[in-house]
Amino acid sequence: MKIVVLSGSTIGSKTRTAMNQVMKTIEEENPEAEATLIDLADYDLVFSDGRDYREYKGDTQYVAETIMDADALIVGTPIFQASIPGALKNVFDLLPQDGLRDKVASILVTAGSTRHYLIAETQLKPILAYMKAQIVQSYTFLDERDFFRKEIVNDDAFFRIERLVEDTIVLTQTYKEIREAKEAEYDF
């Protein structure tokens, strides 16, 4: 199983800290999974211009192809100005309209305030659904109280991250089994 852990911002530390914990959880709980961390701060992506994702070069090509090859996508996003970052939206714009078909997507949100709790519901889930992802319905929301000096300090936050990873993997395995059973029904 290939999992892409996407830290969807070019600035800040909370989302990257949380996604590092996601990676650690995957490695400890599911060592057979092939997990790749993509932190947008580490890549130089061009803006989407509408061409096929395979026509891009360099970092842009790597990010797009890695996501397209994955079975699951765990999207980490901060909330800036009551919205997801433009860098994260650009990643989705690089992919085809049904680029997340047959992929499971889950969400981890970091925010400075609990007032931004519904941003994932109103902005990120619709994008993932439009791109045909199977969405893990419960997402993980971390706010200012869960962090101190670039570390997660809330035990409940660790539990919620573990649950997010578990739900993502279980749903990915379940959908894979369903697709395999459906394909086995055909005689050719």
Automatic annotation (TrEMBL):
InterPro entries: Flavoprotein-like_sf, FMN_Rdtase-like_dom, NAD(P)H-dep_FMN_reductase. The keyword Phosphoprotein does not apply. Pfam families: FMN_red (PF03358). Residues 1-142 form the NADPH-dependent FMN reductase-like domain. Keywords: Flavoprotein, FMN, Oxidoreductase. SUPFAM superfamilies: Flavoproteins. This is NAD(P)H-dependent oxidoreductase.
